[in-house]
Specification:
Pnp Oxidase, Chain A; 10-stranded mixed beta sheet; 4 helices; 10 strands
């Protein structure tokens, strides 16, 4: 369900519309910063991660080494924030939720891509692979209404004319 505010550039999305926006923005970015919380010093730890899949429910899937620091942190606190950037001017996404770690062999096979062999040399049957399922609970997005080309043209016209031509759209996401 879409909720618009007085400013037409704010559009909150929920349910299927939120999931579709999440999938659209993740497809454009392909990777994210995966941020865990550590109880050791009450800080956050960020690392880049490639998304293997975003499913119909908006869950985001990753492959990770079982003995990684990230997996150890998730065992202590499953709360995670993901940050995506699909382009320089649009397609920004922040997702908050929790992660579930497993060694589901069928899911590993489903998510496997030959480029992952760089991290897991024994291939799909590498015993060090784990699956991380990120379940989004809330988020926020920043995008443009008409695509990057039109947004870019509007920025140029605004720069020359001195008149704002905002093509942005943003809002809360609740899958």
């Amino acid at each position: 369900m879409k909720t618009s505010h007085e400013n037409d550039h704010i559009q909150d999305l929920s349910g299927l519309e939120a999931v579709e926006k999440i999938r659209q923005l993740i497809d454009k970015a392909g990777s994210c910063f995966f941020v865990t919380r550590t109880t050791l010093n009450h800080s956050h730890k960020s690392r880049p991660m490639a998304v293997q899949k975003t499913d119909q429910a908006g869950h985001v899937w990753f492959l990770s080494a079982k003995d990684s620091v990230k997996n150890m942190e998730l065992a202590q606190d499953s709360k995670v924030t993901l940050y995506f950037q699909g382009s320089s001017y649009a397609n920004f996404l922040e997702l908050n939720g929790h992660a579930v770690v497993s060694q589901d062999k069928e899911k590993i096979k489903e998510l496997w891509d030959p480029t992952i062999k760089a991290w897991f040399p024994e291939g799909v049957d590498d015993p060090t692979i784990s699956v991380i399922q990120f379940v989004p609970e809330s988020g926020y997005y920043w995008d443009n209404k008409h695509g990057n080309a039109i947004a870019g043209i509007k920025v140029l016209i605004s720069a020359v004319s001195g008149k704002p031509m905002d093509d942005s759209v943003e809002g809360n996401l609740v899958p």
